Amino acid sequence: MLKSNFLNLIHKLVLFITGRHYQLDFVTPGNSPLFAISRKQIR
């Protein structure tokens, strides 16, 4: 439960900073949220 809240907080922070939606990356199996975020920022 704590981990879920932490990921949710990261998600909200990313949405606040970028104004984009990363929800699909957060629910994609095998990808950590940080990896998904960094991959999109590089591209």
Helix-strand sequence: HHH
Number of domains: 1
Number of helices: 3
Largest sheet: none
Average predicted local confidence, pLDDT: 63
> Which structural class best describes the helix and strand composition?
mainly alpha
Q: What does the radius of gyration come to?
A: 10 Å
Helix content: over 70%
Silhouette: rod-shaped
Low-confidence stretches: none
Topology, number of strands = 0
Strand content: under 5%
Q: N-to-C terminal Cα separation, in Å? A: 32 Å
Detailed description of the structure:
The mean pLDDT is 63. This protein is rod-shaped. The chain has one domain. It is built from three helices and no strands. The chain is mostly helical.
Provide the descriptors you would attach to this structure in a database record:
3 helices; 43 residues; mainly alpha; single chain
Briefly say what this structure is.
It contains 3 helices and no strands. With 43 residues, it is mainly alpha-helical. The protein is rod-shaped.
